[in-house]
Amino acid sequence: MWRRASGLARNRWGIRRLSSVLRRHVFDEGDWSYASEWWDPSSEGHTVFSKLSSHGNGIVSVAAYPASTPSVGQWLMTEKWLQHRYAGMYRELNQKDCQFKVLGYQWRVLKFNDDTHQSAVKVMAACRPSDPGSLILMQQSHCLAVPYVKSMVSVGLTALATSSFDLIHAVIGKKSMNILCIGHGGGTIPLFLASKIKGSNVHVVEIPSCSRSLSSSNGLPFL
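Structure (tokenized):
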């Protein structure tokens, strides 16, 4: 039972104690309250990838569903961020060629035999107005949509934090951390870890040959 307090208190060593009074609302795009957008059989979706697995998984498919967040009002900020990043990478281009337009957001769900849900990710679609054919898909690395994925990340990082591994310095980029993801199924874990742990070197291994194609459908920049 948490004891109520007026705020964050410090003991004689200057260590802050948590209080149940202070509650901070954190908006989570991967909250389970949005699961009906991609889990509900009545959701409006369409197949963007389908192939027969050569490793006994049956029909491996990726279905796309409309995502309600982020709202259209937030797209302009994302477009400016994309323009800044792209201009920094390709300094020889003029400003017009570095502009981006967000087309929308989707859930991309990997399924086996149109029944078993393997992974669910959120993908942003964008293009350069100067080249309408320049469609890009960008998986949203901060969005962990499936509860067990959140649990895997939490348990794994907690185990490291309680061991002798210096996780803090890996997070801030002062220590290298090699991470191997085996059979990630187009999910968000590799990108999430790479974006949150600056010192990480993330390696991904998949056995099925169709993994490269389905990973591209899920907006992954590799495989």
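The chain has one domain: 32-217. The radius of gyration is 20 Å.
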